[in-house]
């Protein structure tokens, strides 16, 4: 039975874990979406300092909220708890508590005002969990019904997911749309059909991929559904700086947008590209004009080729390329780029004799050939009465 929080088949304290085998409470957060590693778990607070009275609670998919914890109640990471909602009560799992929450709020620049802060009520009991599971079982069918209603009403939108509140008083309908849509009639129909308070929440293509999850081209789970929370804009310039071919099919992710991972190493490439001349820089020699073909960023080598022989690439270090550019500015052309080419490094072979094949592994096997030196037995001869005579 899966809990719906990850693609490993189950996690959390209420289901059987298929990943970490610690029922989702191992502390590393690796069995659920947007898991958190508590690096302050082994650090004790100074004497006289009270724990930070806030906790982070995860709900379905990637939705997380912060709640205030009363001092007389004790909670731990992984506990299934009942929290206050806008209307009624909701159930989630604690992913972060204590001093780590304060640092998380500071990193995200979130200020919790007393009037807007909701309370963490108590730990969930068996009755709460049964009602929670009952509402989660209705979500998939509700999504299909909502899609049929959207088609009947001819609304240009796509319903991605439906999330019911644990007490069954509210439903959040996630949808994507290219333009603004009028869903007032849809809200009336949904409210009368499911008997809940309806909240329509528009999300983008990246948020939709985070909700649904999946496996990326790298063979791992999507970053947006496992740990990534900051969706920054990705441009084709990030691919150009990393010397990648501008192929929309390969550079696009599950959401149809450019992959978020193009930004991960962009800063390293920008630092390494400092000191390189522009890619459209031409090198003038007495032999002819050479054009830039490709760049090895981290080795600091640029490859050039003459116009009449584009198939032959000449590797030149960036410092020497800059020197040739300075000579060209002084209207001095070198004889040939081969004078500045990087010399190939000779790879020395091993200084020991290769003994592979000298010893046969089957040399101790017995020769089971038949012995052909045996004397052939003569066939028996039967005598008759005439032979005796």
Structure commentary:
With 389 residues, this protein is of the alpha+beta class. Among the domains are: 128 residues, no CATH class; 70 residues, GMP Synthetase, Chain A, domain 3; 57 residues, no CATH class. Helix 4 links the parallel strand 7 and strand 8. Helix 3 packs antiparallel against helix 4. The N terminus is likely disordered.
**How much of the sequence is in beta strands?**
15-25%
pLDDT < 50 stretches: 1-31
Report the helical percentage: 10-25%
Number of strands: 12
Helix-strand pattern? EEEEHEHHEEHEHHHHHEEEEHH
Task: Please work out how many helical segments DSSP would assign.
Answer: 11
Features:
4-stranded antiparallel β-sheet; 19% strand; alpha+beta; 389 residues; 5-stranded mixed β-barrel; GMP Synthetase, Chain A, domain 3; disordered N terminus
Topology:
Layout: E1 54-58, E2 64-68, E3 80-84, E4 89-97, H1 99-108, E5 118-123, H2 126-137, H3 139-153, E6 158-164, E7 170-176, H4 184-194, E8 197-202, H5 205-212, H6 223-226, H7 236-241, H8 248-251, H9 266-272, E9 283-284, E10 289-296, E11 301-306, E12 309-317, H10 318-329, H11 385-388
Parallel strand pairs: 2-5, 7-8
Antiparallel strand pairs: 1-2, 1-4, 3-4, 3-5, 6-7, 9-10, 10-11, 11-12
Helix pairs in contact: 3-4
